[in-house]
């Protein structure tokens, strides 16, 4: 592990903002982000500009993210709440990131970056969870060079542990939380942060200032990496002098 390389990004994890209840809460960066950006830096140092840029781009996920929704076993009457949750999660992150990233829904079955699946019985490792996400962020070697790739599957539960139907607002919190992972955030213990546990009586409407600052810092780091990788890769040819004379 090359910890020194992590210094700049590790600091970002400690963005502090004044939060509810009079104490300060911190947003956390998911460990995979640190590794991923370290890969980008290593590629840049090896002079592999395209690879370095692709790693940074895989983290940025492009400016436009397509999302498809599978309602699963959701009762028809609850589908509008699911739509409200998805739309609300789009809005909260588009606003937080000053519309640098936009989301759009595509039909179920169509190719999309993110697939959301609603289910009454969502569980992970046999535990009832309000939702979870599996994502893949890779750089693919193609004949045209390296290509960034990002995709994610988001699972959202439509019932609470007592068996009651979740509202659009509670599912919006969880959907926004899973998107927070996509943008590079890790879970925190504090209730009252989007990346904290869901309190179904008080679902959040948006990420906290610390969470937004952290995601912005990760993205800034990606943009810097792209610029630095490109600067470090200039081509300059040295010509031979002809007939023993210096060319001019
Ligand atoms: Zn989480």
- The total of helices stands at 6
CATH architectural group: 3-Layer(aba) Sandwich
How are helices and strands ordered from N to C? HEEEHHEHEEEEEEHEH
Strand content: 15-25%
Shape descriptor: elongated
End-to-end distance, in Å?
Answer: 49 Å
How many DSSP-defined strands? 11
Low-pLDDT regions: 1-23
The average pLDDT value, as a whole number, equals 87
Largest beta sheet: strand ordering: 5-4-6-10-9
Q: Can you offer a commentary on this structure?
A:
It is a single chain. The radius of gyration is 22 Å and the shape is elongated. Helix 2 runs antiparallel to helix 3, helix 3 (49-60) packs antiparallel against helix 6 (209-231) and helix 4 (79-96) crosses helix 5. The termini are far apart. The longest helix is centred in the C-terminal third of the chain and has 23 residues, at 209-231. With 248 residues, it is α/β, with parallel strands linked by helices. It has helices at 7-12, 31-45, 49-60, 79-96, 168-182, 209-231; strands at 16-18, 24-26, 28-29, 64-70, 102-106, 114-119, 123-124, 127-128, 131-142, 145-157, 185-186. A hairpin with a 2-residue loop joins strand 9 (131-142) and strand 10 (145-157). It has a single domain (3-231), classed as 3-Layer(aba) Sandwich (Collagenase (Catalytic Domain)). It has a five-stranded mixed beta sheet with strand order 5-4-6-10-9. The protein has a two-stranded antiparallel ribbon with strand order 1-2. The chain has a two-stranded antiparallel sheet with strand order 3-11. The protein binds zinc ion (ZN). Residues 177, 181, 187 line the site of zinc ion.
